[in-house]
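Consider the following input, taken from an annotated entry for DUF692 family protein (Streptomyces coeruleorubidus).
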Amino acid sequence: MERLGTGIGWRPEIADAVERMPGIDWVEAVAENVCPGHLPDSLRRLRERGVTVVPHGVSLGLGGADRPDEGRLTALAERAEALGSPLVTEHIAFVRAGGALTATPRLEAGHLLPVPRTRDALDVLCENVRIAQEALPVPLAVENIAALFSWPGEEMTEGQFLYELADRTGVRLLIDVANLHTNHVNRAEDPAKALAELPLEAIAYVHVAGGFERDGVWHDSHAHPVPRPVLDVLTDLASRVSPPGVLLERDENFPEPAELEAELASIRRAVEAGAVERVKAEVRAAGHAVAARPGAAPGGRSEARRPGAAPGGGSEVRADAPARGDAATPRAGGTLTPDVPDAGPRGEQRDPLVAAGTPQGHETGAAGATRGASGRPEHTGVDEARQRLGLAQAALLSALVAGTPVPEGFDRARVGVQARALAAKRADVVAKVAPELQEILGTEYRTAFLGYAQAQPMTGGYRRDALTFAEHLLSAGRPGDAAARRELREWWLERSGPAPRSRRPVHRLARATRKVLLRR
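Applying the prediction step yields:
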């Protein structure tokens, strides 16, 4: 795994500023917002300058009960190849539920939702990750997400869950320290404990982002400055391992470029502070090792000097020796790869036990230990696990977006917070993909959309949602203003047919003339 350095999330709204920012080693682009055949000029120029671009997927739903969609995997692979990326990233989350697997209506969350940390969910996630790894041309890294609520009956901590996922699949991890802070506030989970349980050698890179607290709930908004507690978690991580890359995420409410540059500087300082602590810990550990060595003289000095040891009993550190805490170390060819077993095809990790003659199907390490402790058999049917997980996720998502009863065991207040957050997210994204709706409806847009969202779950993408919203208003004789209603109907007709309306000049002129006449 190559070292990435310091980066920032590339967004169209700040594309020009990102190009001019000093010290940007790499950028991350939302995969679904990039067309492989028509890359934005800004991304193309960055690539020509040698800036690495990593596609970051948000819609695959690897934590869902269904197997990953082949079309979505193909699209992600195409973006990785078009951008010349060293890896692609996605989330440990589910984004849709229902359908044929559960014989329930297909529902879309429109946002990332947490998976339960259970054996069933882990088995399904591991198989889904392996399917994705096989379909992608470059290594995959998966990200821990922020959560507003907890699943009842969870069997593992976040660190244990991520450790076993990496142990069983060889997948790399994208650790979001802002999400660790979010789960500290919302779920009382200790970030330090999670970091202590992680397989640090599997870290591909780190996300840093801002948020805000309201009524005791932390919202991972990506629209606010990075707070000190998140930087402290980053320093803690950097005191344990040297992260190959660190990236600032900002999705909305973009500040002036100088403010973004200041945040990047704060991130660099946090990483440097962690590196200092890591070196101090390594020096202390080395000193204790020398003191404990047989034959050591009082004060920790050895009677005889080792070959290669510095005068005075200290260790002579080679400049080319990798630090103990590095997440990646140099291998043949000059590339940087984690200290894990040799990689097989498509970045899969060869099992050292298999290579040594250990029978396949026998688990050791985190996977075997956790299974043994729980008393569960080593192998259970993943299809049955998919069925159980699918039913649980469908029931929860229905409560979140369709107003059905909250499943037993969940915190109803927190589920309500999540439901309102999902509706608000829908309103924001629909306003972005169909800005004409806000122009037509004016200040009534948000209230009208939230009312619609309470009764109409999203079953397709956001563009389909925008059209369904317009249909909903028109069927109810809204908006009340006749001119606005005619304009909304015309907008809907332009986009809802089986094929786009003709763009020939004569036809466009006819439609424009008709609009003018209708408004008189």
